[in-house]
């Protein structure tokens, strides 16, 4: 663990424990005291302060397993350094019962300012791609690997991706789409745990180890297409495969 990472301190650990308690109810973890709300290890060492009321041990499983409660945890997350420069954490948006989910890299300037994913120029292109597939943007679900903007739109570091990935995986589990499109290298590398370039991965159906029932298609990120419009034809081939999986008429 890197020096200065929020998980170094007891409060950072408490936040992470809070997230795990929230999203993995059956996991054996230190639980807050019923009297004081403090979190203590088995030996009695205190590792965290009382939980917020909405995330306390008394939360109902229905509430604690929802996208809404996960979004609240993300909005307050300080697990990595990206929290210190963000305006808004960008949780993701769309149909919570979507059959099709898109996953990108992380928020850019427009997304950071608005708190919504894919709203800049790349987002406009993604919206057109979704339309070409026969869906409206609100029919699908759109999320990113990291929820906070990396300064200068740099690629998120491995430690930042590792801190944030449990949120995305929980989102995927809650939405449980039939198909997922991974947009660009960062999304593909993070979720597939394969260190191959997107140009080799794209266009080939794959799956996620944790979610074997979801059909997954890696393809280029819309931001790449803005710089390399010729690659749009390859992406359209990839998206047509996905349309076939979902019973949509292919062009
Ligand atoms: S990028 Fe993810 S892990 Fe890092 S602070 Fe934001 S929500 Fe938390």
In short:
The protein is of the alpha/beta class. It has helices at 10-23, 61-64, 67-75, 109-114, 121-132, 158-175, 185-192, 198-201, 222-227, 232-245; strands at 39-40, 46-48, 93-94, 100-104, 141-144, 179-183, 206-208, 211-219.
Structural overview:
The protein is of the alpha/beta class and 251 residues long. The chain has 2 domains: 1-65, no CATH class; 84-245, 3-Layer(aba) Sandwich (Uracil-DNA Glycosylase, subunit E), CATH 3.40.470.10. 38% of the residues lie in helices and 13% in strands. It has 10 helices and 8 strands. A 6-stranded mixed β-sheet has the order 3-5-4-6-8-7, sandwiched between helices. Strands 1-2 form a two-stranded antiparallel sheet. A hairpin with a 2-residue loop joins β7 and β8 (211-219). The radius of gyration is 19 Å and the shape is globular. The protein starts with 9 loop residues before the first helix and ends in a 6-residue tail after the last helix. Mean pLDDT is 82; it is low at 1-12 and 23-64. The structure holds iron/sulfur cluster.
SSE blueprint:
Elements: H1 10-23, E1 39-40, E2 46-48, H2 61-64, H3 67-75, E3 93-94, E4 100-104, H4 109-114, H5 121-132, E5 141-144, H6 158-175, E6 179-183, H7 185-192, H8 198-201, E7 206-208, E8 211-219, H9 222-227, H10 232-245
Parallel strand pairs: 4-5, 4-6, 6-8
Antiparallel strand pairs: 1-2, 3-5, 7-8
Give me the number of helical elements.
Answer: 10
CATH A-level architecture of the largest domain? 3-Layer(aba) Sandwich
Shape: globular
Radius of gyration: 19 Å
Strand order of the largest sheet: 3-5-4-6-8-7
